[in-house]
Each structure stands twice: as structure tokens, then as C-alpha cells.
Amino acid sequence: MMADPKTVTRLLKTARGQLDGILKMVEENRYCIDISQQIMATEAILNRANKEILAAHLKHCVQEAASDEERAAKIDEFTQTLGRILK
């Protein structure tokens, strides 16, 4: 992975902490909208982590591909991943 490990790790640990908080909210039978808002906040952090990773993929893995065929394969992987994100 070519993304900054410190940034990605920080984001993922933050999301993990939020998930633990959401589980506690569910166990405490908290208000539905409050739980939903926390889920959306966690999704946003996971999306930021994913953007970091995908941007690094484009900047490093695709750009530094050894051949045109390898570059095309990496671009195909990226567009397939992007397609799953945008569903």
C-alpha cells in the first residue's frame, strides 16, 4: 500500500472507536436518529480512508506500472472498485 500508513491507520482507528460507541448506543437502546447519525459519521471516515488508499493507487501503482498492459490492468481494477463504490 502506497498511502500514508499513519493517516490511514488514524482514520481506521477513529472509525473503530466510533463503531464501539455505536454498539454501546444500540445496547443502551438510544434514540434511532442519534445512532443513524453516528453510523453516517463512521461511513464518512471510512470513505476518507478509502479515498486516501485509492488516490495513492493512482499516483503510485498506476503511474509506476512497468508496461502499458500492466497500467491498463491497474486502471481496470480502479474503475471496477469505483463502480462498486458508486452503486
Could you please describe the fold and organization of this structure?
- The protein has 87 residues and is mostly helical.
- The chain is built from three helices and no strands.
- Helix 1 runs antiparallel to helix 2 and helix 2 packs antiparallel against helix 3.
- The model has no long low-confidence stretch (mean pLDDT 95).
- It holds the Pfam family Trns_repr_metal.
- It is found in: Cytoplasm.
- It comes from Pseudoflavonifractor intestinihominis.
Task: Give me a quick take on this structure.
This protein has 87 residues and is mainly alpha-helical. It has helices spanning 5-27, 32-62, 68-85.
Give the integer mean of the pLDDT values.
95
Number-wise, the strands total: 0
Report, as a whole number of angstroms, the end-to-end distance: 25 Å
Order of helices and strands: HHH
With helices defined by DSSP (H or I, 4 residues minimum), what is the helix count?
3
Helix content: over 70%
Strand percentage, roughly? under 5%
CA radius of gyration: 17 Å
Oligomer: single chain
By helix and strand content, what is the structural category?
A: mainly alpha
Low-pLDDT runs of 5+ residues are none
- Biggest sheet overview: none
**Globular, elongated, flat, extended or rod-shaped: what is the shape?**
elongated
